[in-house]
Specification:
Structural class: alpha+beta
Largest sheet: 9 strands, mixed
Number of helices: 9
Oligomer: single chain
Strand content: 25-35%
Number of strands: 26
Length: 449
């Protein structure tokens, strides 16, 4: 029987060609489900070409399976991605670019690279003649917009006995903070002198671009000194357009980005005053701002298990007939999310604003002695020679859907800046194929637990 390292080396070029093809499918779930469905069908066809059993669940999710045992083991991955603007990248986002020892492309790290890797690992188990429990690589299509895909999948298929999702960092993520996406709106449409204000394309991304149009004749000069971000001002006869450029980041780590929407709200508020910018923008500046810990909202908190709450402004849409913003909140694993929500409703209500829950994910926290932690620890140590660290995260993964039977595990190593949800998303190629080896070892261990 061939060794796993030899099999991975044999697959390498074929894998990279397939990854390029998968990345070229522009499966941005925030733009609709049609293209993510194409990615799902592509993956299931690929699995069938490897001689694996497949099942499509309502064109929303599906799986490839190998093994004959009674227990079901799962590897949960997603094929949808967040948006990418080609003009902001140093290479084509919807293709695989290999340069300077790195692999670039939207989805390389989150999560198409891992999805295809897990499928190839299933192929390797089959071709190496490994037998045991059934292992399913499960593919979703809407992880980035609330994980309704897994609700649909698990309404028709059993939750696996043990699972992991390669959609985070190494070592083993034993806990994930609770998540709220809240829409804050002004029912009175009190927008002051603002004609429009737009920012953000996804609920879980720090926006890197925002612009506003302010009505009024004549030229308006705005002092942009000491304002965070890059500001551009365009004066016309009838209005002024102000554009702010910041830096994108995953909303679970908003402090790694520069929030263009918050910067623009602050600039407008300082220059024009709260009455002139309207209720929502004044609230955005006064109660959210460039902070990332929710202090001005009155929800700053932390715990020993998972650290500090994060809160960031992710989307804004203000126009003649609409005035709303979306905030992303990640709260500690020991906190009751209702207390956070009540405080934000209170704060917004004081300004005449309304709060609607778009979605919520309850916190996840697993015992270090659980079967899945033991199995993944063994697999990691077999490859890396050292035990993995256990940690918690503000990120939200499919592990939340597994009812205490799974965790997030890889693919990103702590010293590799993957730039998830940012421009030039990438992974170190050598480290990625190390992940390939760990993933294969973990799936082999699960087949025999």
């Amino acid at each position: 029987m061939k060794k796993f390292d030899e099999v991975i080396e044999e697959y390498k070029e074929e894998f990279l060609n397939d990854l390029n093809e998968l990345l070229s499918i522009r499966s941005v779930s925030a733009e609709g489900d049609k293209i993510p469905q194409q990615a799902l069908n592509w993956m299931l066809r690929k699995a069938e070409s490897f001689g694996l059993r497949t099942k499509n669940i309502d064109n929303t999710a599906g799986h490839a399976e190998y093994g004959e045992g009674e227990k079901i083991c799962g590897v949960l991955t997603h094929l949808d991605v967040v948006p990418a603007k080609a003009e902001d990248w140093s290479c084509e986002p919807f293709a695989l670019t290999r340069k300077n020892g790195r692999m670039y492309g939207r989805g390389v790290a989150d999560d198409k690279g891992s999805a295809l890797c897990a499928l190839y690992c299933l192929r390797a188990l089959k071709e190496c003649g490994i037998t045991g429990n059934r292992v399913r690589v499960i593919f979703g299509t809407s992880e980035e917009i609330g994980m309704k895909d897994m609700e649909t999948y698990f309404s028709q298929e059993p939750v696996p006995d043990i699972s992991f999702t390669p959609d985070s960092e190494y070592g083993i993520c034993k806990g994930e903070k609770g998540i709220y996406h809240l829409e804050i709106s002004d029912p009175l449409l009190n927008n002051g002198k603002l004609i429009s204000f737009y920012a953000g394309s996804a609920n879980n991304v720090v926006p890197d671009m925002a612009y506003a149009v302010v009505g009024g004749s004549g030229r308006i000069d705005i002092d942009v000194q000491n304002n965070a971000g890059e500001i551009k001002i365009e004066n016309t006869e009838n209005d002024v357009k102000i554009t702010a450029k910041g830096k994108a980041a995953h909303a679970c780590e908003p402090y790694k980005g520069l929030n263009a929407a918050a910067a623009l709200a602050n600039l407008l508020s300082k220059t024009m005053g709260y009455e002139s910018v309207g209720n929502l923008v004044s609230f955005m500046d006064d109660c959210i701002g460039n902070q990332t810990n929710g202090d001005s909202m009155g929800v700053s908190m932390s715990d020993e298990e998972s650290g500090e709450l994060t809160l960031t402004l992710s989307r804004v849409c203000i126009k003649k007939d609409e005035s709303k913003a979306v905030i992303d909140i990640r709260y500690p694993v020991t906190v009751n999310g209702e207390t956070v929500l009540e405080q934000i409703r209170k704060k917004a209500g004081e300004r005449g604003l309304e709060v609607k829950v778009i979605d919520e994910e309850k916190p996840l926290f697993l015992d270090e002695k659980s079967d899945v932690v033991k199995i993944l620890s063994k697999a990691y140590e077999n490859v890396m020679g050292t035990a993995p660290e256990l940690y918690t995260t503000g990120g939200g993964t499919y592990a939340r859907t597994l009812r205490g039977k799974g965790v997030a595990f890889g693919p990103v190593f702590p010293d590799d800046d993957s730039r998830m949800h940012n421009t030039d998303e990438s992974l170190d190629e050598e480290k990625f194929f190390k992940h390939f080896r760990i993933c294969l070892e973990a799936m082999c261990e699960m087949m025999n637990f």
